[in-house]
Amino acid sequence: MPRFSIPEQELVYSGHVACPGCGGGLAIRYMLKALGPRTIVSIPACCWAITSGPFPRTALKVPTLDTAFETTGASISGLRAALDALGMKDITVVGYAGDGGTADIGIQALSGMIERNTDAIYFMYDNEAYMNTGIQRSSATPFGAWTTTTPADMDGTWKTEPKKSMMAIVVAHKIPYAATVSIGFPEDFVRKVERAKSIKGSRFIHAFCPCPPGWKYSPENTIKLAKLGVNTNVFPLYEVENGVYKITMKPSKPRPVKEYLGTQGRFKHLTDEMIAQIQERTDKTWNNLLALEGFSKEHPYCGL
Asked: What is the residue-level pLDDT of the chain in tens, covering all 304 positions?
């Protein structure tokens, strides 16, 4: 029998109600494979608060707490304190929240949690908008994207601001470990979550999770898009451990961002000038990341 590079154990039941091709569904599946059954998950208002099923049913084979939109960081802090008081040190506490519940509504609770260095993992599954409530813009929505609150059919109303860098924000808190992952690269994904599990203190995982209805593409292309986002350097894969940056995947010849943008209806309104602007921003961000990787080896938490 061949050896699998990721755990075979499944901790997500079949039959949940995620959309076909849901990136968030694959992300929580890979996450739990890496963390194992001694895990408690806190889920705020988001797609997965619905997807896993209404109480008392759930699609997850681990204890799950549904919590308010803005309180993921606070809820996992409370769970950790309660488990410690009971002497249950071997249970991993993880918050599984979307980009809206992390970068916007929940950022204050997240900041408090990681500033206290709470021994828990915060997992942000990023589909780049408020998908559960109708594809509204979030601060993680990228520049130029269509959403229902940035309708591109009206002149100049697509999103004009850049995507918020949650990795930069959490690393500025000087936490022990933070990493980006993509569902298109499950081995890298699982390795990083396993690494996060082995470390004490606050850990943050930022997962790239394409969304067929929100991004306007056919569901069978989810993995293709998840890979293309990495191979165009739109979503680089890297980790920051104790302030030291390490890029875990460097495309030998990055694909042009036009290939990535052209696969999604949310970008169909882009002009050649706007695509060139996005390419320029992507190249600049990638070069900055390369510089951070080299400099941080001698200067951890450089510039912070």
From this structure: 345 688 999 999 988 889 999 999 999 999 999 999 999 999 999 998 888 877 777 899 999 999 999 999 999 999 999 999 999 999 999 999 999 999 999 999 999 999 999 999 999 999 999 999 999 999 999 999 999 998 876 555 789 899 999 999 999 999 999 999 999 999 999 999 999 999 999 999 999 999 999 999 999 999 999 999 999 999 999 999 999 999 999 999 999 999 999 999 999 999 999 999 999 999 999 999 999 999 999 999 886 6
What residues contact 35, with CB distance under 8 A and at least 6 apart?
A: 92, 94, 121, 193, 197
Assigned CATH for 23-296: 3.40.50.970
Q: Where are the domains of the chain?
A: 23-296
C-alpha dist (Å) from residue 185 to 59, 98, 111, 223: 23, 19, 28, 9
Q: Tally the residues of the chain.
A: 304
Please name the residue that has the structure tokens 């950022």: 107
Closest CA to 189 of 5, 64, 4: 5
For residue 131, CA distances in Å to 101, 104, 128 come to: 11, 14, 8
Q: Could you tell me the strand order of the sheet in which 238-241 lies?
A: 64-66, 39-43, 92-98, 120-126, 202-208, 177-182, 238-241, 244-247
Structure tokens at 280: 């320029």
DSSP 295: H
Which amino acid is located at 135 in the chain?
Answer: I
Quickly count: other Cβ atoms within 10 Å of residue 160's Cβ. 9
Distance CA 205, CA 34 (A): 13
Nearby residues of 136 by Cβ (< 8 Å), 6 or more positions away: 100, 129, 130, 147, 148, 149
- Say if strands 238-241 and 177-182 run parallel, antiparallel, or are unpaired: antiparallel
